[in-house]
Amino acid sequence: MTRPSTVRAGPFHVVVRSYSDVMGSAARTLRRLRAAKDSGALTELCRRRSIELAVLFGSSVARAPVREPRDVDLALSFRRSGAGDLLTAIEDLAELVGGDDLDVMDLASAGPVALHRVFTTGELLYQAHPHLFAERQIFAINHYIETAPLRRSVLESLTR
Fold first, then answer.
1. pTM listed for this prediction
2. Among the four 69, 96, 101, 103, which has the fewest Cβ within 10 Å?
3. What is the 3-state secondary structure (H, E, C) of the chain?
4. pLDDT tens-digit profile of 20-48?
């Protein structure tokens, strides 16, 4: 059993790295995560840790990858604010898939661009109830469109 050697929390995501780089590549981590979904182990973990949504996104699920992904990006949403312990959930996920190459984002902290990317290009792994992913997807797209003028204004002010 490999436990993470470092867990770094940023404002938007947490990166988990294991003791050993020998444990496997991002492709192996991705295969293990999908196998955990297929076997029901991921569903069990999500229920135990109050995770209501788990979505793969980023380079590991890109339609036309430019290069081999270096990590596996996973977005999580918890049932109630503060109900799920993000770090404990990440440790459990790292143990489930071998610990390497996980980059976990808490959807509660994500901005409109990150939400848009997760919900328009992501691969659903788990949803606590039917239609949850679709509901969040609609919200993410609308929020992205509504905040576009503000993002454009900020970018224009940076170029002046």
1. 0.79
2. 96
3. CCCEEEEEECCCEEEEEECCHHHCCHHHHHHHHHHHHHHCHHHHHHHHCCEEEEEEEHHHHCCCCCCCCCCEEEEEEECCCCCCCHHHHHHHHHHHHCCCCEEEEEHHHCCHHHHHHHHHHCEEEEECCCCHHHHHHHHHHHHHHHHHHHHHHHHHHHHC
4. 443 458 888 999 999 999 999 999 999 99
